[in-house]
Design a protein that fits this description.
The complex is a heterodimer of chains A (about 120) and B (about 120).
Chain A (H helix, E strand, L loop, with lengths): L3 E2 L4 E5 L4 E3 L2 E2 L6 E8 L6 E7 L7 E2 L2 E6 L4 E6 L8 E9 L10 E3 L3 E6 L1
Chain B lengths: L3 E4 L2 E4 L4 E8 L5 E7 L6 E7 L2 E5 L6 E7 L2 E7 L7 E8 L11 E2 L3 E5 L1
Parallel strand pairs in B: 2-11
Antiparallel strand pairs in B: 1-3, 3-8, 4-5, 4-9, 5-6, 7-8, 9-10, 9-11
Chain lengths: ~120, ~120
């Protein structure tokens, strides 16, 4: 079964508008971490934002915020005031467990969403 | 140098060649990772090294051989590769702290490998 699902292969957004990228996950662990990464055409995977399963507040980091709905197992990324430089692939990832010894911090990635910001 | 660096950025090799990919992290982390990113497939974890010991090997063919001589350096030795091994190979590092779940992985720029 797919652990991380990103249902939007591609998205368009107008510059200065907000956009939401969807991500749902599947896990039976109580403790897990959720990550979003940005990958421009250059290839580097850039860490954007993190949400822990026990965090009660939605994570925010500058123009990035998460709409974390634990019961629905979704963690959607919201980018406010889009900029042309935001055009890239966006990956959602999950690390299961992690709160006990022996964790290897294995990340499971989704297939990504290609975001194109239009002027 | 800061962050995670990878060399070379691009590599073209024949199926009979032997080459190595290099990764170096300048973040003081204690864990390093190799990932493979093929077209239209999710990122796949290949190897994990924690404190210079290999702790994960995701059924990777033996033609890929990792080496971690110290906590800052990670190599991926390649020999007799196949064309389907052509992909972007990403290195990452993190600070594993058992009992804390916020150890984010930071990635390098990747090596784009083409096997002819």
């Amino acid at each position: 079964a797919q652990k991380i699902t990103q249902t939007q292969p591609g998205m368009f957004v107008q510059e200065k508008e907000a956009v939401t990228l969807d991500c749902t996950y599947d896990t039976s662990d109580q403790s897990y971490g959720l990550f979003w990464y940005k990958q421009p055409s250059s290839g580097e995977m850039i860490f954007l934002i993190y949400q822990g399963s026990y965090d009660e507040q939605n994570a925010t980091e500058g123009r990035y915020s998460l709409n974390f709905q634990k019961a629905r197992k979704s963690t959607n990324l919201v980018i406010s005031a889009s900029q042309l430089g935001d055009s890239a692939m966006y990956f959602c990832a999950m690390r299961e467990g992690g709160n006990y010894g022996g964790a290897t911090n294995k990340l499971i990635f989704g297939t990504g969403t290609l975001l194109a910001v239009q002027p | 140098e800061t962050g995670v660096t990878q060399t070379p950025r691009h590599l073209v090799m024949g199926m009979t060649n032997k080459k190595s990919l290099k990764c170096e992290q300048h973040l003081g982390h204690n864990a390093m990772y190799w990932y493979k990113q093929s077209a239209k497939k999710p990122l796949e974890l290949m190897f994990v090294y924690s404190l210079e010991e290999r702790v994960e090997n995701n059924s990777v063919p033996s033609r890929f051989s990792p080496e971690c001589p110290n906590s800052s350096h990670l190599f991926l030795h390649l020999h007799t590769l196949q064309p389907e091994d052509s992909a972007l190979y990403l290195c990452a590092s993190s600070h594993l702290v058992f009992g804390v779940s916020t150890d984010t992985q930071y990635f390098g720029p990747g090596t784009r490998l083409t096997v002819l």
